Amino acid sequence: SFDAYxxxxxxxxxxxxxxxxxxxxxxxxxxxxxxxxxRRFLLRNTSQGVYVGKIKSSSPDDSLTYxxxxxxxxxxxxxxxxxxxxxxxAISLANTFAKWxxxxxSGLMGDAYHITSKNLTLTDTKYKLxxxxxxxxxxxxxxxxxxxxREIGWKIFESLSINCRATHGFGELKDVNHPELGIEDIQDxxx
Length: 191
Known about the structure:
The chain is α+β, with helices and mostly antiparallel strands. It contains six helices and eleven strands. A three-stranded antiparallel beta sheet has the order 5-6-7, with no helix packed on it. The protein has a two-stranded antiparallel ribbon with strand order 1-2. It has a two-stranded antiparallel ribbon with strand order 3-4. Helix 5 (132-144) runs antiparallel to helix 6 (147-164). It starts with 6 loop residues before the first helix and ends in a 7-residue tail after the last strand.
């Protein structure tokens, strides 16, 4: 999986490679092997878009959480240092996640999904103020120069400002398709 509980591992492999100016060759090798394994075993391309699933008890599991939306940013960063061919994958994933944001009433993504070839089912309707996809849009804008990514990030920020504003800061949106239900007064430090 490249989702919750292991997402940072892959990101830190890449960042250690970069921070050591390529001296941590094992980190670069492990990162490249991980991306190759992801492409081979976890990458899905369905009518719902391109995304990265999981393997659970030796079986495919097409559920994912918002935490996996860091992938376009991480992969685009890796394309700058290790494998330039990965940029197409980063863009494909980001296009899918941007579409999913647009498919909700609030313009924000829920926290968990289950995907089949025909359906994208929201299994956790909250928007928990996670920065992963806006960060991915930032990386993609910086590396491609395509203002599309800056505009997508800005649109998400505007949706966050409209739907999640609290008296002092922001709160978690209870339901991305029913923003009228309001927010929970919770703002984690990662925002």
